[in-house]
Amino acid sequence: MASRAPLTELEAINSILRRAQLFEVSNLTSDLANSPAATQAVETLNDVSRVLQGQGWSFNTRTDEEVAPVGNEISLASNVLNASLNGSYEIRDTVRDGKLYDLKSNSSTAFTSPQYSVTYVEFLDWTDLPDYARNYILVKATRKFLMEFARDSEMYQYLEPDEMQAHSYFTAQETQGGDLNLLTNSSIVRNRTRAPRGNYGWRR
Fold first, then answer.
1. Which residues, 6 or more positions from 165, have their beta carbon under 8 angstroms from its beta carbon?
2. Is 108 exposed, middle or buried, given 0-12, 13-18 or 19+ CB atoms closer than 10 A?
3. pLDDT tens, residue by residue, 177-203
4. Percent residues over pLDDT 70 in the chain
5. What phi and psi values does residue 100 have, to the nearest 5 degrees?
6. How many angstroms separate the first and last alpha carbons of the chain?
7. pLDDT tens digits, residue range 130-181?
8. What's the CA gap between 30 and 53, in Å, rounded?
9. φ and ψ at 129, to 5 degrees?
10. Where along the chain do its domains lie?
């Protein structure tokens, strides 16, 4: 049996819109200007993804990276959500203004050792996420969109078991360190056919 391709960002956005009875889009660049609903769906998907990824998982955490400070500073890439030193140092580290920051000395120039071991939590683009993460993010984002934008409490409640199942599968894959395709193992991305709504997605 042929394997199923990973869920694309466009497919995820259209899944959210379909659940809310809104018109789907064919392009995430050109179509957003004429679809406030699609724009909100993209923002919701990104918000949920950022919150989830910020917790740090096997797919977006780099451990024991050796870093040499420059000018006693450790600068971080723009996609780093969190970072911390490994080992015992006289430093209470956090992240500020794109750099590691020492709360003890209130300075970003306290990194005077030649080298440090650092653990990074990165924000990954949609295409770099494992499929089990994409599907969990999709279900959470769909419910958030339904409640905050579409005001569809009925469908919000309907999808609660889907989110619980997606969470269980996500946790299982993280525990195992695997990356299986959720779509081949569950009914999480069930679709009920619902008629789209009028101009810009809303029924008049």
1. 186, 187, 188
2. buried
3. 644 433 333 333 333 334 333 333 333
4. 85
5. -70, 140
6. 44
7. 999 999 999 999 999 999 998 888 888 989 999 999 999 999 999 886 444 3
8. 27
9. -85, 145
10. 9-55+126-201, 61-122
pLDDT score at 197 = 39
Token digits for 7?
A: 């869920």
**Whole-angstrom Cα distance, residue 8 to residue 41?**
14
Q: pTM for this one?
A: 0.81
**Phi, psi (rounded to 5 degrees) for 96:** -140, 135
What residue type is 86 in one-letter code? N
Contact 145, 16 (CB under 8 A): yes
Total number of residues shown for the chain: 204
Q: Give the C-alpha separation, 3 to 181, whole Å.
A: 9
Residues 132, 169 contacting (CB under 8 angstroms): yes
Contact call for residues 30 and 10 (beta carbons, < 8 A): no
Q: Mind giving me the DSSP string for the chain?
A: -PPPPPPPHHHHHHHHHHHTT----S-TTTSGGG-HHHHHHHHHHHHHHHHHHTT--TTTEEEEEEE--BTTB-B--TTEEEEEE-S--S--EEEETTEEEETTTTBS----SS-EEEEEEEPPPGGGS-HHHHHHHHHHHHHHHHHHTS--HHHHHHTHHHHHHHHHHHHHHHHHT----GGGT--TT-----PPPSGGG---
